[in-house]
Design goal:
Blueprint (H helix, E strand, L loop, with lengths): L6 E5 L6 H10 L3 E6 L2 H9 L10 H12 L4 E4 L6 H11 L3 E4 L6 H4 L3 H25 L4 E7 L17 E6 L6 E6 L7 H20 L3 E6 L1 E3 L25 H11 L3 E4 L5 E6 H13 L9 E5 L2 E4 H12 L3 E4 L16 H5 L9 H13 L28
Parallel strand pairs: 1-2, 1-4, 2-3, 4-5, 5-8, 8-12, 9-11, 10-14
Antiparallel strand pairs: 6-7, 11-13
Bound molecules: nicotinamide-adenine-dinucleotide (NAD) and sulfoquinovose-uridine-C1,5'-diphosphate.
Length: about 400
């Protein structure tokens, strides 16, 4: 999909989704600047764990990108939740056409660790999003916003097997004169403090789109898997983050990595949970499509479901076990979530705009498994089993390997 070349700020551009997106957009010729406070790297230090892949410091990454491609990506070290005035100044100086907002605390388990993590997640995510919107209004610039939301805003199982629409639900409201039809934001049904912050973001977006005419696209993304994109694979200095620990590692990448290092696959509960997935290669493509297709000023928030497939957790474990011979361990579920759910997601908008979806194939699984095997010696086995519980008193599984 080819559009105008844009001046884009990537908020959270040092992270798992942000870094490959910054490279993809820079490679496509856009003028890219990363804004990040490096909080994700600090949380690694706090949790005493590191990305399985040896990610390089941000400046080393950017020097390598310039050396390899001749393209320059800017970097501004800034906390969007706390440094409001600096952020307004940055908008006025750089006058971006658009910004992509990845800059939030994104792990559901981390957001449920303790009161400090809950409060940090709400303060960081809600203040950050509000500061972005407020700063755009103050700058008086027409900056389009593309935000990474989550499928988890809809929750799981609330509407049974009814298809989850893209953002808005048509409802019939009873009145004394008969029912009237209305379109409302799909009811929010978050399953963690983290997911709750994304539902609060939705209200902020609806207000600023209505009141100030800000052009906003909210992408309700499923669980991202894989790690490499064509750009991150160019050189090891550009390698992407690979989270595998119990708080930040997500289910499919964890299973692939666990199989690669000989650890049993850690299924929570029965594994009947069904979730939506997307490969990181499609994440970066979807962001570019969204940037090229912003809503008009005055439009309601444009919502896309950024999802290519749905899978049940136990089916994923069985598939990986079949391919690799890995053992499957059924562990007490540390989360408060339905033991099983249906999930039927509408995802017509990206397909309509030309996305050719990458689906789960043995080839792609193997590519990710190879990364897991290559860096297996960096894995800390004591960080694999999830230890964060949603409520005090819930059972915590023991480590499965010494
Ligand atoms: P990540 O933690 O790897 O990256 C987030 C980046 O934002 C980090 O580099 C962090 O340092 C930065 N950041 C956080 N708070 C900031 C602040 N106040 N100021 C400046 N920078 C800040 O997360 P990710 O996996 O890349 O996810 C990116 C976005 O996509 C998140 O908003 C997440 O909710 C959403 N998302 C992720 C997934 C997934 O599976 N990874 C799925 C759906 C949606
Ligand atoms: N699960 C296991 N075993 C594991 C890890 C997870 O069975 O080792 C289960 C969980 O209990 C849950 C499901 O797998 O039922 C998904 O968990 P996850 O950690 O892969 O995903 P989640 O917590 O939902 O969060 C991730 C990202 C988040 C994003 C969300 C998209 O961290 O940023 O918003 O996926 S979605 O799930 O579609 O809302």
């Amino acid at each position: 999909m080819q559009g105008d070349l844009l001046n884009v700020l990537i908020l959270g551009g040092d992270g798992f989704c942000g870094w490959p997106t910054a490279l993809h957009l820079s490679q496509a010729g856009h003028d890219v600047t990363i804004v990040d406070n490096l909080s994700r790297r600090h949380i690694d230090v706090e949790l005493e764990v590191e990305s399985l892949t040896p990610i390089r410091p941000i400046h080393e990454r950017l020097v390598a990108w310039k050396e390899l491609t001749g393209k320059e990506i800017g970097f501004v070290h800034l906390d969007i939740a706390k440094e409001y005035d600096r952020f307004v100044d940055l908008l006025l100086e750089s006058r971006p056409d658009a910004l992509v907002h990845f800059a939030e605390q994104r792990a559901a388990p981390y957001s449920m660790r303790d009161s400090a993590a809950k409060r940090y997640t709400v303060d960081n995510n809600v203040s950050g999003t509000h500061n972005v919107l407020c700063a755009i209004v103050e700058s008086d610039l027409d900056i389009a916003v593309v935000h990474l939301g989550t499928m988890g805003v809809y929750g799981y199982g609330w509407s049974g097997s009814a298809p989850i629409p893209e953002g808005y639900l048509t409802v019939h409201v009873p009145t004394p004169d008969g029912a009237i039809e209305r379109e409302i934001l799909h009811p929010a049904n978050p399953g963690s403090v983290y997911h709750m912050t994304k539902t609060l973001d939705q209200l902020l977006f609806a207000f600023y789109a209505k009141n100030d005419g800000i052009r906003i696209t909210d992408l309700h993304q499923g669980i991202v898997w894989g790690t490499e994109t064509p750009e991150t694979a160019i050189d090891e200095r550009l390698i992407n983050r690979f989270d595998y620990d119990g708080d930040y590692g997500t289910v499919l990448n964890r299973f692939i990595m666990q199989a690669a290092i000989g650890h049993p696959l850690t299924v929570h509960g029965t594994g009947g949970q069904t979730r939506a997935f997307i490969h990181i290669r499609d994440t970066v493509r979807c962001i570019e499509i969204a940037l090229n297709n912003p809503p008009a000023r005055g439009d309601q928030v444009s919502v896309f479901n950024q999802v290519t497939e749905t899978y049940q957790v136990s089916d994923l474990a069985d598939l990986i076990s079949r391919i690799t011979g890995a053992e499957v361990a059924y562990l007490p579920n540390p989360r408060k979530e339905a033991a099983a759910n249906d999930l039927n997601v509408t995802r017509d908008r990206f397909l309509g705009l030309g996305l050719d979806p990458t689906t789960l194939s043995e080839g792609l699984l193997e590519e990710t498994r190879e990364i897991g095997a290559k860096y297996a010696s960096r894995a800390d086995f004591s960080k694999i089993v999830a230890k964060t519980v949603w409520k005090a008193g819930m059972e915590i599984a023991p480590d499965l390997m010494g």
